Amino acid sequence: MHYKAPGNSSQVRLGVSGYLEEHSNHADVRDFLRQQVPELPSYDFKVELYVMGLGFPSQVTYYATGGRGEKIGDDGKPVTGKKLDNEPYLEFIQALLDKPDNEVPHVLSVSYGDDELSVPRPYAERVCGMLGLLTKRGTSIIHSTGDGGSAGGRVGNCRTKDGTNKKVTMSTFPASCPWVTAVGATTNTAEPPSGAGFSSGGFSQYFERPAWQAAAVDKYVEEINGHLDGYYNASMRAVPDISAVGTNFRVIVGARRKLLEGTSASAPVFAAMISLVNDARLRKGKPSLGWLNEILYSDKVTSLLQDITKGQSYSCTWDKVSPGGWPAKQGWDAITGLGVPNDFAKFLEVLEDV
């Protein structure tokens, strides 16, 4: 992506969410920016307790939220104690909703998620409704889909948790919430790029498929011609919505350089793009984009995306049998969504004026 914002300051607020006692490190961020984008001026983030190179000059805040969210175990019973490792989404979103409008982020990037069926349905529905309220205040919510392919967040964990132990492909939450823009991942090791095997996707068990997805998803279900029939409900919300590159990411952790991959990397890339679009909009006196999905599925945006037609996501495995994951197809698919933004200048041109 080759783009330079017109200035070193911005009104755009980009929020990055953190959970499970995983915290940001100012020194690592400074080292990374100095090594990878030395042309940037001094640039850092602030932390609030309860993506940076691409998103410059957005004002970045890292939101660290303590505690745990509700979870259902594989036996269908509530999980407590040290085994409770779902994120406290409700507390965090409520904290954002309590903020005045001039402190609510224009873009929220979240690289966490749970197998949808591990989240109690009433809790998930409440959180999803609160996320919808946040989009009404101008926030675009960008969520990674997870790294387990058709198995969701954990490879091989593909059964219901209601006592029936039924075989199902697994989506992740909050990515399955229709108010969230769910981001999958592609590789960057060859041209044309392909869907990354780890890129999670599929169909929700909780949320119905919105009308704006109908045509794109119906075409995909027809294209896969019965593949994975019986393991998903095609009438439900489908993810991901879109993708970005998710492999070979240079990072610095504890002053050590590493290469990582995952939708936890691709989601912030797309969030940074939306931050730059919002920067252009605010400079024109326009409001931030807010909820994105209906716009993304419109012809004016899908015509700008690079369609990914190669690749297949990781498979669920039942009794040592693996039927295969979600294949990439022409148009929307359950590994890369609608595709990837291929020409940011054109992407910006369309979205800054919608």
UniProtKB/TrEMBL annotation:
This is Tripeptidyl peptidase. Binds 1 Ca(2+) ion per subunit. The keyword Cytoplasm does not apply. Keywords: Calcium, Hydrolase, Metal-binding, Protease, Serine protease. GO terms for molecular function: metal ion binding; serine-type endopeptidase activity; tripeptidyl-peptidase activity. Residues 1-353 form the Peptidase S53 domain. InterPro entries: Peptidase_S8/S53_dom, Peptidase_S8/S53_dom_sf, Peptidase_S8_Ser-AS, Sedolisin_dom, Tripeptidyl-peptidase_I. Ca(2+) binds at residues 307-308, 331, 333. The active site is at 70 (charge relay system), 74 (charge relay system), 264 (charge relay system). It comes from Metarhizium robertsii (strain ARSEF 23 / ATCC MYA-3075). Its cofactor is Ca(2+). GO terms for biological process: proteolysis.
